């Protein structure tokens, strides 16, 4: 009975008739009817339609907390997922769009990937539009389903509607994988030849993408490029130029092939400039700046290292450079590109000067972006067009005061590149002022740059020391750690400035002990030159009156201060110890040292214990041990902001002040001949005190020991890497410029036995008279080669020896060649040179070994 | 070429992201975070250019939205500013006095417009009118092909 009733309700509802109400049906009847209707709807119809995209966006935006938003998203995602499961074509598009929105908010959307594919495959344009959008957002080439798009894209590339084709080209061109590109390159090539400019321009950029992904496919697009530049349509022209640029950048052959297009490009550019107002492409009075810039860039690539092409574009570049309106950013964008092109091709000098002047004008522009771009470009050209850039030095220096961080940094780099012997004083003033006031992020680089520049171009030692002092006192905590040893070396080598230096450093310490590098350098100096300090010997300025106790107070203060790092404490303890031979208040020093022998800091403790031992058991050695440090050999510094490549691999000449200073044995021990090979059991502090001055022209390195040789200008070319031995290993000596005493020393035969003869030739590599450079020449008069030849040497304790690599280890038979090897001997005490040599080699299959003494050194080699 | 284009609000909410190179999802999120931090942290009158890894970053603020793109090192930054400006002009023409809300509620349209202006990280059309006409025509096509029920 119920079911009959039910079926009659159905009938009524279905036919839309609703006569019941007009028949004065009782209310209960109507309510029951309504109930059945709802039941019917729930059972026989689907869930309500998914909410619209805009509505979802609105709803999500009302969420007040992240948690609330997440809840809404989860709910909607669940609904979308079930909708996807039902394979509902109607709402797929809407659901995917919502998913893309949620994806943008940061929520996962991977379950929509396949749905995007289905949308792409649909015939409806709306579906395709959203489908391709979804593909571009969710389906990059890392996804497994990415390749499944290929067929759809292929079909759509051949679609009858250009907008569908456009969608496919766009998707392929933005994110097609290499496989996809390989599969579809042919279709793209076809479309590149179509007359439909809407498709042609897209195909050109698609081709660019294909070439980027699969460079081997470049060839296949070559035929299609034939007439690209004869197009009138700007869109096609622009994308064609991009395509040509890409091809030329990737393949030198293509570059050669397309060079012939230069006249055509010049013509197009000329038309753009000369043509009147074109509403379609006008930007602030300039016709199609995008195209102009791209053409300029292509011209740059084509004109690079080719005289003819460069000449062909000279005129147009000059025209663009002079005629472009500079009041707006767009004009400056074109000028910027023009300048880059001029500087890169083989342009005539007049044009180059014009370009640099444009950059100079840029520097004065109110627009920060333009100033920034100018500084960046000038930095690129400063090496090649140095003099031209120098003319704008004052403007560049003014940029140091700019408020913008990026501009300041560029200006700083450029300023350091412009420093030379002529402008050092003025530039340094500006740079030091900059150092005072700049942000901490700059201070380290600026300080290093100042040290470098000062070292190269300091007009006087006093100026140099003052500059260092200024940096240490103003930016002392930002100075790099390796500056401390470099500075110490510098100070040591400026012998006549010791008193002045120690006095200034002492005064600085009185003011401020928080800046560790300053404190470290100061303590070291006080330890070294404390005697000069208390004796009031300073010539450069008014000597201060200070007593030994005051000095020791300061040093002890460093030891106890919370501001001092462990390294600093080490410096001050050693300094105090050194003063025991320079001051008379030895007892006080003894006391300090003994206190620290129970310090918690292991390093300090060790030092104190050793110094204590020095007082107790080895007091006779103390004066010698704590003697004044010798002059250290100068090496070029290796700061990170090194702009000139004066130095490849430097051997650091760091005096490691943690160890005991150089032990100089008393004279009566010099005659002890040592064991061979390893007999140098004295570990010198300065491992490589050997000179590493570059043998280069220009004299751009300041010789602190010798004359002040100033250079007139920067030597732009990198000089010979310093740490290579100045002598070629085949025995030819390259004549270093400073060499003035080399000629006199005669060679000698050091060893001659069993057919092996070893000759020594002598040179002096540098002004340091303490170093002898000996080149050994080993020759073999027997009929068999001597293989695995090894030459070893040992010298008495007062010498230091360095053996460089041999030219080879085979001494050819019958004097057909020689093995050469360079030995450098440091002989600070000018003792008679003696050497023991050990030779090992294999001759006719059997090993040979021999020891010999060499005593017949000519006197000039060690005097 | 342009590697990516991001639009985000003053609070760092992403409004549009277009990537022209394949990058893992996690990396994309990191880049977005880095860009928003860097750009939002800039002082008001700084220049519009930054360096990040080996890319040049060019950004410009339009009302409450930041437009930020990452370019190859050899790209012309000043021109990139023009590209960003052109995109804003296109949006403005389409939506009429475009504001952030338009882009929020019609993000898919913003993408469609972008896809008519840039392709593979390069400019595909230099004429404003041509781009606008293409979009209009596509929209028309969409209307025609749609069933009565709207999305």
Automatic annotation (TrEMBL), chain A:
Annotated keywords: Cytoplasmic vesicle, Golgi apparatus, Membrane, Protein transport, Transport
GO BP terms, alphabetized: intracellular protein transport; vesicle-mediated transport
PROSITE patterns documented for this protein: GAE (PS50180)
Keyword Transport: yes
Membrane topology: Peripheral membrane protein
Entries under Gene3D superfamilies matching the protein: 2.60.40.1230, Leucine-rich Repeat Variant (1.25.10.10)
Gene Ontology CC annotations of this record: AP-1 adaptor complex
Subcellular location: Cytoplasmic vesicle membrane; Endomembrane system; Golgi apparatus
Record SUPFAM superfamilies: ARM repeat, Clathrin adaptor appendage domain
Main localization of the protein described in the UniProt heading: membrane
InterPro entries: Adaptor_Complx_Large_Subunit (IPR050840), AP1_complex_gsu (IPR017107), ARM-like (IPR011989), ARM-type_fold (IPR016024), Clathrin/coatomer_adapt-like_N (IPR002553), Clathrin_a/b/g-adaptin_app_Ig (IPR008152), Clathrin_app_Ig-like_sf (IPR013041), GAE_dom (IPR008153)
Sequence ranges assigned to domain GAE in this UniProt record: 743-858
Family annotation (Pfam families): Adaptin_N, Alpha_adaptinC2
Assigned protein family: Belongs to the adaptor complexes large subunit family.
Name this protein carries in UniProt: AP-1 complex subunit gamma
Source taxonomy: Eukaryota, Metazoa, Chordata, Craniata, Vertebrata
Automatic annotation (TrEMBL), chain B:
UniProt-listed InterPro entries: AP1_sigma (IPR044733), AP_complex_ssu (IPR016635), AP_mu_sigma_su (IPR022775), Clathrin_sm-chain_CS (IPR000804), Longin-like_dom_sf (IPR011012)
Keyword flag Chloroplast: no
Gene3D superfamilies membership: 3.30.450.60
Subunit composition and interactions: Adaptor protein complex 1 (AP-1) is a heterotetramer composed of two large adaptins (gamma-type subunit AP1G1 and beta-type subunit AP1B1), a medium adaptin (mu-type subunit AP1M1 or AP1M2) and a small adaptin (sigma-type subunit AP1S1 or AP1S2 or AP1S3).
GO molecular function terms attached to this record: clathrin adaptor activity
Species of origin: Oncorhynchus tshawytscha
Protein known as: AP complex subunit sigma
SUPFAM superfamilies: SNARE-like
